[in-house]
Design a protein that fits this description.
Layout lengths: L18 E2 L7 E5 L5 E9 L2 E6 L4 E4 L6 E3 L2 H12 L11 E3 L1 E11 L11 H9 L13 H8 L4 E12 L4 H5 L10 H12 L15 E2 L2 E8 L13 E4 L7 E3 L2 E3 L1 E13 L2 E8 L3 H10 L39 H6 L6 E2 L4 E6 L9 E5 L2 E11 L12 E8 L2 H5 L13 E3 L10 H5 L5 E4 L5 E5 L11 E2 L10 E2 L4 E6 L5 E5 L31 E2 L5 E3 L9 E4 L2 E4 L1
Parallel strand pairs: 7-32, 8-9, 8-11, 10-14, 11-15, 17-19
Antiparallel strand pairs: 1-12, 2-3, 3-4, 4-5, 5-6, 12-15, 13-14, 15-16, 18-28, 19-20, 20-21, 21-22, 23-24, 25-26, 27-28, 29-30, 29-31, 31-32
Length: 568
């Protein structure tokens, strides 16, 4: 494939950028303010930038006294968050690492001096939750973490975990998770170090070192009780991914080092129309998968700068999708993430074509891609999302269209959809032209946008994406630099959701002599690139020696396959 997506060349895995799960919407609380008033507000943001927002739009944060709330100095908070998200290492570049074969991660179960895991949430429970093929339980689970990644990769990425613990910290959870002013989870580094010191002697950290640099790449701390991202308790720890380099320094042990880590809670709060009920429920696997996916290199696709831009909404695990199905049915990875991981190849739409039965992401249908001919870093991705398999928790189904304007600096700094820099860089093109995170708004995001009438029939409100539709197929990078924003000029029309779960549409008027099939064969070696040449599977050593064409026949190590680094 001559026209490689440029993001396949941009490696941001080494950048020490911070990532966090967004808040679960709906957590409200009555807050005492410093001037003696009481206001009702809802928690917003993430681990590195959070606040309470009142109905009048005012933002509040905890005051220095730790008991009352003051109006937020939001610009200062944003600046601090940008510093926390800034990479430790500059000049990130090189080949993207493709994840294939069997890999192992480490999960450390952590209890606090005053907070233990629920009785049924023991080590055996978590070993099944993350590893057991076909796992289900009465809490709502439809598969394990292992199952999720195996499905996303079409069987190419076989991930399992060693689970150790629980280990217990010396202090109560509030000591580690408390917020002081705008500083959140002030002692979380101490919790991580205590837990790692107790767990490290039980494992060989080299087993989790995927690239041979001496550091365990995939270390996950799963702590008892609630997390601040899914409760209204400011003394709990917010789920996130970060680096020990920012938390007191890398941890060194006889079998390896720990720097990059992720963490999440055992439980989340139960909500009703008024907010948090005080009850709890298991957090499921969605937040675990969200944070672990950051360890694999995926950025957040919600607005990390607090401007509440739409981003990818609930249709992406790396946005708000980790909470779908009460956390037990996280959605499939988007086309961008699957392509980035090297698990699927897109089909280029560059001339008139007819798509009659586009298979869904659950059925491993290949996505379509439409480039801006003047700038290959900008493109539209088309994928069929149906409420089946891991996507069963989606609010709507149909053709999902994502507008990507790739800029490496925005990906490495985890500001993909932060408009304070310029514009959203990877965002849904919503069929209803409505970017509101409400149930009705989310249902209308995918094409075609239809209205169900009282008699049970449907009225089509939008079934096309053209230069004149609403929304239109606009471009950030003009065909003519002097014109500014322009349009794609490649109309997609007659978008239809078929009874069998497939999607049909016409590209540039359609062509019955160019009917495209998006079926995917199992195993990337059998995939064909868009210029109909067999994908290059030659295996090279890091120093450039040709070793063969079968990566599966190679011993464990780091190789170059098809121009990409591959860890085996």
């Amino acid at each position: 494939m001559k026209r490689k997506l440029s993001f396949l060349v941009a490696l941001f895995l080494a950048a020490a950028t911070s990532f966090a799960a967004p808040v679960k919407p709906g957590f409200k609380k009555t807050l005492p303010t410093v001037d003696g008033n009481m206001i009702t507000a809802e928690l917003q943001g993430d681990e590195f930038l959070s606040w309470w927002q009142a109905s009048d739009g005012k933002r509040y944060t905890l005051s220095e006294d730790g008991n009352t709330f003051v109006e937020a100095q939001f610009e200062k908070m944003q600046k601090r968050a940008r510093v926390m998200r800034a990479p430790l290492k500059g000049g990130i570049g090189g080949d993207h690492i493709t994840y294939e074969g069997k890999k192992k991660g480490l999960i450390i179960l952590v209890e606090f001096a005053d907070k233990k895991f629920q009785a049924k949430h023991d080590k055996a429970y978590y070993e099944a939750l993350v590893n057991q093929p076909g796992y289900s339980n009465d809490e709502g689970c439809i598969g394990s973490v292992h199952d999720y990644y195996l499905a996303q990769s079409n069987g190419k990425f076989d991930l399992s975990f060693d689970v150790v613990g629980p280990v217990c910290t010396s202090q109560g959870y509030a000591y580690y998770g408390k917020n002081v002013g705008n500083n959140q989870d002030v002692n979380v580094g101490a919790m991580l170090k205590e837990a790692a010191n107790k767990a490290a002697p039980q494992v060989n950290l080299a087993d989790y070192d995927w690239d041979g640099d001496g550091s365990a790449d995939q270390v996950f701390f799963l702590y008892a009780g609630l997390g601040e991202n899914a409760s209204n308790d400011p003394n709990t720890i917010w789920a996130h991914m970060h680096y020990m380099s920012y938390r007191g320094g890398k941890l060194s042990y006889s079998t390896g080092k720990i720097d990059r880590y992720a963490c999440a809670s055992e439980l989340m709060g139960v909500l009703d129309s008024k907010g948090y009920t005080g009850e709890t429920q298991p957090i499921g696997i969605g937040t675990i998968c969200h944070e672990f996916s950051h360890c694999l290199g995926f950025p957040d696709t919600y607005d990390t700068n607090g401007q509440q831009q739409y981003g990818m909404g609930y249709y992406d695990l790396l946005s708000n999708g980790n909470y779908l199905g009460e956390g037990f049915t996280p959605p499939n990875f988007t086309a961008w993430e699957r392509i980035y991981a090297g698990w699927i190849e897109p089909i280029v739409l560059d001339k008139a074509a007819t798509i009659k039965a586009m298979k869904s992401s659950t059925d491993y249908g290949r996505p379509f891609i439409m480039y801006n001919d003047n700038n290959k870093d900008e493109y539209y991705l088309f994928e069929n999302r149906q409420k089946t398999g891991w996507d069963r928790g989606l609010y709507g189904d149909g053709l999902m269209v994502t507008h990507v304007d790739y800029l490496k600096e925005r990906w490495t700094s985890n500001t993909v959809n932060t408009t304070g820099y310029d514009h959203q860089r990877m965002a849904l093109v919503t069929a209803d032209d409505n970017e509101v995170l409400s149930t009705s708004g989310i249902k209308g995001d995918l094409y075609p946008y239809v209205y169900k009438k009282n008699d049970g029939t449907f009225r089509i409100l939008n079934n096309e994406l053209t230069d004149s539709s609403s929304p239109a197929a606009m471009l950030w990078n003009s065909h003519n630099a002097s014109l500014g924003t322009s349009y794609m000029g490649k109309p997609v029309t007659e978008i239809t959701r078929n009874d069998d779960g497939t999607v049909s549409f016409l590209v540039m008027g359609g062509d019955d002599n160019n009917v495209l099939d998006n079926s995917t064969a199992t195993g990337i070696a059998t995939l064909k690139t868009t210029d109909s040449k067999v994908a290059d599977r030659r295996v090279y050593s890091i120093d450039g020696r040709l070793l063969g064409t079968d990566i599966n026949a190679m011993p464990k190590g780091l190789y170059i396959v098809g121009g990409r680094k591959v860890v085996k």
